[in-house]
Amino acid sequence: MRMSSIRNFSHFFRHSRLERGSANDGFEDIIGTSGPLQEVLELVRTVAPTNSTVLIDGETGTGKELIARAVHEHSSRRGCPFVKLNCAAIPLGLLESELFGHERGAFTGAVARKVGRFELADHGTLFLDEIGELPLELQAKLLRVLQEREFERLGGTRTLRADVRLIAATNCDLAALVSQKRFRSDIYYRLNVFPIPVPPLRDRVEDIPLLVRHFVRKFADQIGKKIDEVPSEVLEALVNHPWPGNIRELENFIERSVILTSGNVLRPPLESLKRTVELESPRPITLAEAERDHIRRTLEYTRGVVAGPNGAAARLRIKRSTLYFRMQKLGISRFNGDRREQGRHPCQVDRRTI
């Protein structure tokens, strides 16, 4: 963004009497005017009036839940419940109960009947975030609900029906999970009826000043401060930062900045942004290190199996003897990888807490 635009925005920030950042007509909670964002909103306008399943794809912190809510609010179901569930936040043993409910005595600790999210969302919308974390056995049950609109509570025998529109979201490459046999292809195609890709913040930098204004006013109002100026050099630094955590990282940073500011001019801790960039920048590695890491990951995936049609050698498309030679040269045994990584789901690799 040019410095003239940043100066103009800084002046506008000081003198504007608007209470909110620039919102879009009909999408009051979504801030921004960039082309990539407008393309997303046009997709929302197109699919919202239908009952089609929507798959929202985007990095962590890009605002996928806001897009899901926008689809619901622009649909004929807007007067009915919008129910959400983060598939990564629920222990695997409880996930089925959260989705479909359970009867009293279905398992130890089930002292009363529980209504699941599908029942709660009847005639409304169910938003399943981090859908890539859903276990394979539950994927089959989810597919049945999507196709037949019926299910049973855990421990129950009565078949229940629910009229639910499903919106799913992921920050994973579901197609890659399908090829790795970690996500069912039938449910992937059933979910991927209408995909909506949400751009990362680095692809919509012109929205950053508007988001900054929105968050500054939001947090200043919450703690009773009056901040009416953002210096142009601060805006330039914020616009030029890559924001690996996207909008959520920016929001958290502005909240911290508002708390630290003592006057009416925003004074953010810009030095912390530099440290974030340094942490996000990987060090260069040698070819040997890259080869060692790739072989180790392949062995982890095959659980140490080298030979056979599903072994590491076949997956690497080299002879078994060649793989043994490379392993010996690189100092790799079948199980000398970090055991904390054994069986780790692809969605969990490089996940950042925001």
Provide a compact summary of the structure.
The two termini are 25 Å apart.
* Strand segment tally: 9
Helix content: 40-55%
Query: What's the total helix number?
Result: 15
Q: Report the CATH architecture of the largest domain.
A: 3-Layer(aba) Sandwich
Largest sheet: 5 strands, parallel
Q: What kind of oligomer do you see?
A: single chain
Please explain how this structure is put together.
With 354 residues, the chain is α/β, with parallel strands linked by helices. It has 3 domains: 3-21 and 204-280, Helicase, Ruva Protein, domain 3 (Orthogonal Bundle), CATH 1.10.8; 35-197, Rossmann fold (3-Layer(aba) Sandwich); 287-346. The chain has 15 helices and 9 strands. The protein has helices spanning 3-15, 35-47, 64-73, 92-100, 117-120, 136-148, 174-179, 185-191, 208-223, 232-240, 246-260, 270-280, 287-301, 312-316, 320-330; strands at 23-24, 27-31, 54-57, 82-86, 125-129, 150-152, 159-161, 165-170, 194-197. The strands form 3 sheets. It has a 5-stranded parallel beta sheet. The protein has a two-stranded antiparallel sheet with strand order 1-2. The protein has a two-stranded antiparallel ribbon with strand order 6-7. β1 (23-24) and β2 (27-31) form a beta hairpin. The longest helix has 16 residues, at 208-223. It is globular.
